[in-house]
Amino acid sequence: MTKRRLFGISLAAASILLVFFILTDLSSFLRGPAPDTPVWYWPYRWRGVGRAWLLGLTVLGYLLLSFWWLWLKTDSKWVVAGALSGLVALAVVFQVSVVHIDRGDASAELIDRALANNSSGYFSTALSIDDMGAALRDYPALMARFESDHARTHPPGLIVLNWLTLRGFERSDAISGWLADWIRPNRCADYWLYDQPDAVPAALGVWTWLPVLAAALCVVPAYLLAQRLTVGTAKLATVFVAAIPALLIFAPAPDQLFALLVLLSVLLLHEGLRRKSVWGFFLSGLLLSLNTFLSIGNAILIVPALLYALLEWHSSGQRWARHQTGWAVAFASGAAAVWLVYWVGYGVAPWAIVQSGMAQHVVLVNQFRSYTTWLGYNWIDLLVFAGLPVIVGFLIAAVHAVSRRRGRTMTANGRLALALLIFLVILSLSGTTRGETGRLWLFFMPLLAITAGNWFETLWRQPRPQLGLIALQLAFAVAIGLAWRPMVAQIVEAQAPVITAAATPQTSLGTTFDEQITLLGFDLPTSADPDSPLPVTLYWSAETQVDRPYTIFVHLADADTVGPPIAQDDGIAVNGTWPPTCWQDDAIVIDEHVIDVPPSITDGEYAIRVGLYDARDNTRLLLADGSDFVELGMVTIGR
User: Fold this and answer.
1) Contact, 204 vs 183, CB < 8 A?
2) Which of 9-18, 29-38, 210-219, 520-529 has the lowest mean pLDDT?
3) Element (H, E) at 339
4) Under the phi-then-psi rule, with left for phi > 0, alpha for psi from -120 to 50, and beta for the rest, what region is 575?
């Protein structure tokens, strides 16, 4: 057995073993250091395979597309465009399919994650700001007051972008209305969202799906960068990026947007080095500046970027010259640009943001997480969420770059791998932000995948072993998607009621309000005593998607007048849990109400009247004949 074959078998066996441990949770070692503490600990939650059909089809699509691309001998622009488009689509569907396993309504879950403070918090923070100029001028002091932990520890970039999105939609009623009609039903019991102008749910929809799309689009700059780092086809490296577990699991998260910006920044840096272009260096630094304005932690990308540039310069055998100084100045100018604009325009020094953010981070994270714990679990978490094939390939590429044979020059791929390895060692030893690395270090994982894929392609040029590596990489993403729950939105969500009573009313009716909501029938006693409860059960259905969370009223009224009711019970259907905006076509909603009959009521016959109104302005829904209630019948009240 050759060494190459033995290595492949060993890698496959180790990957399968780790995937097995993730799926079965035989040991919690991989999930984090301590449960029920502030130290991170990924929850184990086996979802089973009941809703995994979409995930299974997506993985099959990955393998078929990879098989087709790897086996093709031609690399025309149409083939590449088709392969990249397919990978983008599959990456989007993979993210949705994992969420679908966690919760059947994937779109609603993604929106909840974008809105919830614990999983994001930038959108809700932006929504609370009326004067962004004043907020930017006072931002270091505001950080400690924000409700969201993420907003408290991050610079204003993401909040500004969310705020600008809101203001942009306020100027486009047609687009805002169209998006709002799609977003609101996903949070059908969120009365607050229904009372907001259309711009709010529209902007929420953008920031729900933008990170998902950004994660999928990473394959485009990844392919362009991988091509420039190797003499191979860069196909395996590109598919590796599309199959990074963290990139597919943490959706929607701003970290997915960071990953795309990092790839573009490094691609421009490489182009600047290759073409000796000042603009390439400046634009690379400018993207880095934007990335750091979104998250201070992204500034650590400067370390591998500078290391890679120095290794590239050293490999060229040239002495330091004036134009290299110009490159450095251009990169530094770009990297400082966004912060300088903020400093000059709003009078806030960059270090004031850094100091305030780090102070909050120490309070929220570092004081609870020991340096020793971080030092080990930084690498364990990176291995799991990047995937064992990626980490092994990246490490070997870095080691080979150092221990190259005499007379053989270090490849560009090797130089990038070595720069990343030095960076990771420095990062681990520093222990500055001891957070969940599976998410926090997502932004540079595509770079690891590129170096790994390019190295494996030089080891195995045949499609069959490359396809096996892709399958192993996907196995980590599937295992985490089935067995772990790294994303949890702590936010109220609507739960469909369980119908325990008979779905057939005692009295059928079939009266429709405003051509939207039909009262199918009701259960009503014929008599009741004073000072006693009078139960009324209503059977509803929705003809179309209802656009407002209407309140139902049930009135006990004098049969001869249409004045104020004697007693009533108003509320959202099913004890306030299931408003009409949640009702599905053809589904019967059983809605129980209880009217407290007053003790002083005069004996006699009274009418029971039912209707719906919008609590926002008390406007009632009308029947076809123009009336605003339906009379169910008479109830005799007497001792």
Assistant:
1) yes
2) 29-38
3) helix 322-346
4) left
φ/ψ of residue 506, rounded to 5: -65, -35
Q: CA 516, CA 276: separation in Å to the nearest integer?
A: 66
Concatenate the DSSP letters of all residues of 508-529 into one string.
Answer: EEEEEETTTEEEEEEE--SEE-
Residues 528 and 543 sit within 8 Å (Cβ to Cβ): no
Where does the chain hold its CATH 2.60.40.3880 domain(s)?
Answer: 507-637
The span from the CA of 240 to the CA of 473, in Å, is 7
Pairing of strands 551-558, 589-596: unpaired
pTM for the model stands at 0.91
Query: Helix or strand or coil: residue 410?
Result: coil
Written as six digits, the tokens of 273 are 């080095």
Judge whether residue 39 has pLDDT over 80.
no
Phi-psi sector, 407: left (phi>0), alpha (psi -120 to 50), beta = left
Alpha-carbon distance of 488 to 480, in angstroms, equals 14
Strands 533-542 and 567-571: unpaired
Q: Which residue has the tokens 């093709």?
A: 72
Residue 551 neighbours by CB under 8 Å, 6+ apart: 570, 571, 572, 612, 613, 614, 615
Percent of the chain with pLDDT over 70: 93
How many CA atoms within 13 Å lie on the side-chain side of 310?
10
- The stretch 62-68 carries a mean pLDDT of 95
Residue 504 has pLDDT above 80, yes or no: yes
Provide mean pLDDT across the span 24-48.
80
Question: By the 8 A CB rule, do 581 and 185 touch?
Answer: yes
Cβ proximity of 212 and 110 under 8 Å: yes
Looking at residue 310, its amino acid is L
The continuous run of DSSP H or E covering 420 comes out as helix 412-430
Rounded Cα distance between 120 and 206, Å, is 14
pLDDT at 622 over 60: yes
pLDDT of residue 629: 93
Q: By C-alpha distance, which of 212, 203, 136, 111 is closest to 165?
A: 203
> Judging by beta carbons within 10 Å of its beta carbon (0-12, 13-18, 19+), is residue 573 exposed, middle or buried?
buried
Left if phi > 0, otherwise alpha if psi is -120 to 50, otherwise beta: which for 618? left
Helix/strand/coil for 42: coil
Nearest to 118 by CA among 376, 558, 516, 490: 490
Q: What is the longest distance spanned by two Cα atoms in the chain?
A: 108
- d(CA 398, CA 381) in angstroms, rounded, equals 20
Q: How far apart are CA 11 and CA 460, in angstroms?
A: 14
At residue 636, φ and ψ (nearest 5 deg) are: -90, 125
What pLDDT sits at residue 133? 93
- pLDDT surpasses 90 at 425: no
CATH number of 507-637: 2.60.40.3880
Q: What pLDDT was estimated at residue 550? A: 95
Q: What is the pLDDT of residue 491?
A: 81
